[in-house]
Amino acid sequence: MTISLTPVPWTDVDIHGGFWKQRQDVNRQVTLPVQHERSRSRIEALNLKRKLRPKKNPHPFDEGGADGYDSDVAKWVEAAAYSLAGHPDRALARKVDRIVDLWAEAQAQDGYLNNYYLRRDPGRRWTDLQRQHELYCAGHLIEAAVAYHQATGKRKLLDVVCGYVDHINDVFGPRPGQLRGYPGHPEIELALVKLYRHTGRPEYLKLSGFFIDKRGTKPHYFDRESKALGEAPDRGIAGEPYSQYQAHRPVREQTTADGHAVQLGYLFAGMADVAGETGDTELLKACKRIWKNIIERRMYITGGVGGRPMERFTFDYDLPNESAYVETCAAIALVFFAHRMLQADGDGQYADVMERALYNGVLSGVSLAGDQFFYANYLALCPEYYLFHHTRPRRRDWFHCACCPSNLARLIASIGGYAFSSSPRAAFVHLYLTASVELEVAGQALRLNLTTDYPWKGKVNIEVEPQRPARFALALRIPGWCERAAATVNGKPVALAGITRKGYARIVRRWAPGDRIELNMAMPVERMYAHPSVRNDTGRVALQRGPIVYCLEEVDNGADLNAIALPRTARLTARFQDDLLGGVTVVSARARRLRKRGRTDALYQNRPPVIGPTSIRAVPYYAWANRKQEQEMLVWLREG
Amino acid sequence: MTISLTPVPWTDVDIHGGFWKQRQDVNRQVTLPVQHERSRSRIEALNLKRKLRPKKNPHPFDEGGADGYDSDVAKWVEAAAYSLAGHPDRALARKVDRIVDLWAEAQAQDGYLNNYYLRRDPGRRWTDLQRQHELYCAGHLIEAAVAYHQATGKRKLLDVVCGYVDHINDVFGPRPGQLRGYPGHPEIELALVKLYRHTGRPEYLKLSGFFIDKRGTKPHYFDRESKALGEAPDRGIAGEPYSQYQAHRPVREQTTADGHAVQLGYLFAGMADVAGETGDTELLKACKRIWKNIIERRMYITGGVGGRPMERFTFDYDLPNESAYVETCAAIALVFFAHRMLQADGDGQYADVMERALYNGVLSGVSLAGDQFFYANYLALCPEYYLFHHTRPRRRDWFHCACCPSNLARLIASIGGYAFSSSPRAAFVHLYLTASVELEVAGQALRLNLTTDYPWKGKVNIEVEPQRPARFALALRIPGWCERAAATVNGKPVALAGITRKGYARIVRRWAPGDRIELNMAMPVERMYAHPSVRNDTGRVALQRGPIVYCLEEVDNGADLNAIALPRTARLTARFQDDLLGGVTVVSARARRLRKRGRTDALYQNRPPVIGPTSIRAVPYYAWANRKQEQEMLVWLREG
Lengths: 640, 640
Fold this sequence. Notes:
alpha+beta; Immunoglobulin-like; 7-stranded antiparallel β-sheet; 21% strand; globular
């Protein structure tokens, strides 16, 4: 079995207008430069000839750590590569080349390349896979190398990385003398499939499968590792031991989404990749089981995932809005997982979640100006609350553990790669954006030109330009949020009902150059309700329009947002405001607000507060905290 | 100025029936023995001749700590003393005497008596007042000594303790060479006033005032202490430095209730005591300011106080139900504070809060069987939540830091001491219980016999037995929760409206032996509402009947308690159930429950859940988790 869909690579998608062009311009013009600037010490630390100030207890998450050195910089290089392809920039290319040179110089004779160990602890390579991030960092190096080669044709980093991976392939495996280990923090699994696809070398795919299938087997590799280190094995805080690492059981036997949310997303993305490449239906089934558990019980409406403590999945329907974790990287990891499942299973539900995460829990991670970042993306906020807790409720320039900023940069820069797929007889449109895409379908080249004001409007115009007239399907995603869609081809209506399945309207015909599609998706403001077992959301409603989830900000609605209730019958008005938050559709309504009774300051009394009229203004969740930071914010409004 | 009311001591109150007799019997028969048993290692550690197993890092909160050794055992001795007065018990008395002997043997030549320092670190006495608990432990020794002397007439512990306090009085003070310090954890302040009242020695009152007024002055004593210890000063997690200790500013300049909730209660109780004794109206004003802030903005409906992290007050209206702290000791400390304010200010609002805490947030701390204890008293509970957090949602046998169990035991054993006060021309009844009390009013002895089924019924019969007929006021508290009260004297109605002020109906007449009062307080089930700024309680309602706050338990109402909504118009039925939870009044109602829509498992959808009928059964909050532990529980129900 081959995978059912082939994603159209980002290199073949040109985003030249609309929402995502705006985001990509900011990403290129602001985000990439500031991230390089703020990573300077990490980049210089890659230079092994350069002495670093000694540290008392260098830790993998420190500036000099196994994580910090390589992976954050690698993600930045990957982002820069995506950007360079469409927008050549000699200064930026020089910065990247300098980093590539440092990695090449640092690489050991045998191919090994992790700067933390090379610098600090060369004798202890591969001794603490559970907690250190060697294989994780290797995964990000691989992704950077593939992207940079694709973008620029320069082989240097790819060669360095292939040398490193060949070394890893010697060290790990089933043969005598090889280690049976696997990473505490998955990532290399999906990266190895990328490298396999890019180089065609089957050993990379096989190594990915090895890491996946060794995971969680008994006797437990992490137990043996702890023993060798003379340490007590880590039993975790809840659930089965090593569930924090998705290593409590073999991955095929796991039934719920457990442990660190970013790790889980990366791991299962890699599993879906391997399943797609190998036709391993059992592995795909394992992915589907976890997917179902996430989207039916463990995902925020923003597409965010992961709770406190330990940035992990907790339990079914546990989705606290104020005390959540919801790391930006976790929403990104869910995008990766969704994107892989979409290719392997061809079902619009994956694209729905991918889109939900992208427009909400991912984009909220970066300021509109592109220079500040959220690590945690709460769904409710009372700023004083955070005086007493760890994370301050504001986007920040940088983080001690700075995984999110460059992860955002690379995803935004490569967003075109998530929008389209092809199969032998169909072209798929997953995301609606203003772009030209070139792909192959029915044995010949096809160009699609999409123009749209999505996500603010539900109308999409598509010019279909096959090389020659040919019969194939154009599969247009009808999003899960859309209850009424209509389309015309060359002005003539197409009955979508009969041709829509698994979330895609498949318009099959003999397409000829110059054919025009107009797709119209009704985009009313929707009241969204959570499953009644979500104890934090009962009696509450969230506003959503198209893929955009809304929130109330204090700056628009005053303090005490929980004193507001939205009647079920209140009319919801949507209006695009060009001058607000870079241009957003705002939702307004008449609502009700509790006020204290008379002049009494009683904390508790046997008469209910007085209810008075108010009006509310909701803005897209992703755009919050751009006018004022550290203010109240609320996604789930009280209804009534 | 003298204090306006004088509390009738516990020694003069005989509780011989009803609710509190039941609690006192369990306390005596079960709680005191199991606590002694579970404290055995701590008690044995008081024997300095006995070698303890060496510890790597002995810490004040460990078995061998400055807190653990003395204070928890002292509170148990105090509890045992209260019990012995009414119920002589030679075995129990022997256990107490053994402990007293150990303290006497341990006491240093100069009077010093803290077992942690005597054993572990004799050279470092008084060097870390901020974090260690020397003065706190001394306070509990004082309270134990006074109680034991009052109960048994035995002077040994009192002499030991007076020797210790005389030593403390040499070490601390304004004279040259004396330390200007004060305890990190207040407690000794109120204890010194107790000792002053018991011995009549003014230097004890003065020392208490010294500790109070030195607190928070600049240069900061804790800064100097840290410097001397070669450590960085503790800047705390939020607010001004040392606000965790109520030492950020002089106590008279503090305007909000900040820092550790138990510490605050003890400190301000001591301040109210000193203000009452000295007539220091400014100090009393400072107490009133903090009191007002607590009860108008920072107290749970159960009378619990204190949030996470650090067991501290956080900010106005921040009263999360599930992630709170609400330590049992903090509710007890609030009872102490309320009781002192009641004497100093003679206002029923203090008795209201005292009663609220007693019947709810205090009593919930101990199982009905008397053998297990809550440290934290959440107002909402989802048991899986706590798999991922520190405190398991069940009463436990004992704690690493076991301050709560013996604190409960001493309060329950001495509850009679909180019920009555006298002033020159009035006798005050604050709490309604079945008891006989002897007090002095209008220059002669008065005996009151109260009979009541309170808190389940609002009827109280009082026999008034003055030595001789005399004119004085009987001031009966009309609780804040009561909107309709009626009384008769010898069968004739008394118009209460005109004679009730500041929460007390003052029936002034020439009382003669054989006079009978019947007080009837209407006790409907009330819907209680929080101030609209309490973001966790908006749209919610709590049920209260008399002083009893109710909750729903999963064992009665099934899981997903937040899926239940109580309509504002639903009839609330109260019924006493003899066979349930030791006999409690249960509240029932018809309510509504959200159910998922059809067969869909969707986590989010644009149609609201289906609403179906349900019935609910609410039980007193204090009695929850006695049939099943680790189940859902909820105080604030959704309304609608």
